[in-house]
Specification:
- The protein is built from eleven helices and 15 strands.
- By secondary structure, it is α+β, with helices and mostly antiparallel strands.
- The strands form three sheets. Strands 5, 7, 8, 9, 11, 13 and 14 form a seven-stranded antiparallel beta sheet that branches. The chain has a six-stranded antiparallel beta sheet with strand order 2-3-4-12-6-10.
- β2 and β3 form a beta hairpin.
- The protein starts with a strand and ends with a helix.
Amino acid sequence: MTTIRSNERKHMKDLSSISPFRFTPTDSVARGTSHISAGAIPAAPPCCTPKEIYDRVHQEISRRYLSFDQGKEMGFAGKAGVTGDIDFITKKDLIGILRHLKEDESALQESKKDSARTQLFDKIYLMSGDKETGSNWNLRLHNYSVRGTGLGGEDIPHRHRWTLASNVLTGGYNNVNYVERSVSQPHDPKDKFNKYVLGASSAQTTQGARGATLVNEAVMVPFKNEIYAKGDIKHFPIALPHSVDTAPAYMGTTLTLAHTGVPTTDTSIAYYKEAFTSLPSLHFESVEAFKASIDLRIAQLQVLDLQDNLSTFLNARQQNNQPLTPDETRHLRDTHEYNYVETSLLPALAIYNMEKINGIEHREFSADTAKFLDSQLSQINQRVLNTLIEGNQTDLMDQRLSLVLEPGAFAQAMAERQGQ
């Protein structure tokens, strides 16, 4: 096994003993994500209402999408695919968009209709372009939970029916590309799959599934592994089959902003080992359940903003020769690790809140940092934040998070990324 900072693994054991209902002061290590996501252009006016944010983002994507050439798969500002359409969108923009969905009944119903839980992730539909003008682009938020979606299964090689751009907001995954070959050619048995045609996801019913039709057998040979992580905005060519491995124990929760162009076909292609007739997917049964899911994504984005802001705050203090506590130094050092939010920040916030409730002096943060955190936390719904914290504490106790990356394609791709 390849151990990452094995001398600190004892802290992970300490963390896993924290109950979601009984927070005990203990060491919380920092593991998490990489650099800050692409800049905001144009900058969002600070006074915007959720609807104004929604409209501004919609108008800007629509304007940029006009530059997209499907044949060349090149778009705005000469960037690959439709990546240039979304590089201006900030986490605060996404929070505003989600709040608009909750506040506007028509937008809420439209979003609920096209949002779902798949085998790999929960997706929330945010907005789309104008179908009548042929500019029917789509924008969604995909959340790959540490504990999975409950529908089972791992990602398999597949082809999209539209050009895709993905902005990784936190976490990350190993993107694997494949070349398709005939079973009549010499091949490794492990690379043989059943090739299926899948119906469009928009054809799903509330409790429905995507229909699948067997085409033939095919050999899918992986030829490239590449880690996509926080801050990356990646282009997925429409003709190139791929799969993703999120390695959630090591990468933590992965949240991506997915932007797709106009569908070029009514169906997509997927390659499965086993025989099956449909791909399971669940839509939200009630408006209340959907709103709760939106609330969780808002709080999640606010915690990610807090992560970036805390790093900036502590770095400024260090640059100004202001003292940091040992734990603050550790937070500043480890904020760029992949599962930092899960293994350090959320446990630290759990302890911080319990110290505050019980009138205990904060041992992890200085008085100035505590004031900063109070200001940040006042913007987050505490009930929803507690739900995030409790779920994360359960993941820690169930040992779903790890500082160990098993040998294999993922570890090799990670080593290549870190060596760049």
